[in-house]
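hi! just following up on the protien thing from before. the input was this:
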Amino acid sequence: MISLRNLTKEFGPQVAVRQLNLEIPDGQLVGLLGPNGAGKSTTIKMLTGMLLPTSGTAEINGFDVVNDPLNVKRITGYVPETGAVFESLTAWEYLQLVAALYHLPESEATERIEQFGQFFDLNTSTLQDKQLSAYSKGMRQKVVITSALLHNPKVVFLDEPLNGLDANAALSLKTLITSLARDGKTIVYCSHILDVVERICERVVIIHQGSIVADGTVLELLEQTGQKSLEHVFNKLTATENLLARAEEFARVLTSE
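and the predicted 3d structure came back as:
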């Protein structure tokens, strides 16, 4: 479903993504991990048409992201790390606008918006009467997630999707994500919450300094590195020192006076 061949992105002399080669089949839930500045968000932005690659190619369901961007957008949904919305609109108006962009019939769009509202505990009056500027961060995130899934995409990119969600909404979303993958959707899940990735993702890809440094199931990565958790695997592959020991030493410094 997703195919990257030597995908590269440069910003002047800075190489953000370096010749990535990756194949993701239908219906797989993949955790895409990396420290800040590793290139994972840049990769997602290239796959969703927000950035042009410097070189290399990327295809989604056989459509080239550069040469056939509209067909790519028709079958993908994207929850960005910082979900921006038109704050002067109500959630209802905003989601109807998104539905129109995907050419959903109005009756179908209305039904889906109501279904998502019920799922996320956003009642009709909240959706229709409140401007998005009055929404809390978590409520706004629910609207952003809804807008990404409204057109029933084949491929979903999620960049820190749990941002702002309370425990109940986060649990509901995690269950929804795993269920969608079981039903055949391909999902790329970017997050710094590694215990969540460890529990829900069947495959983990770790990017460091623009290159892939690990790719496999959580169990495979644990066995390959001799570590006891995904957090420890991540630390071993992307940090220059033992961060746990560093934190313990720093705590001793702070409490020594």
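Residues 2-75+153-254 form a domain with the Rossmann fold fold (CATH 3.40.50.300).
The mean pLDDT is 93.
cheers
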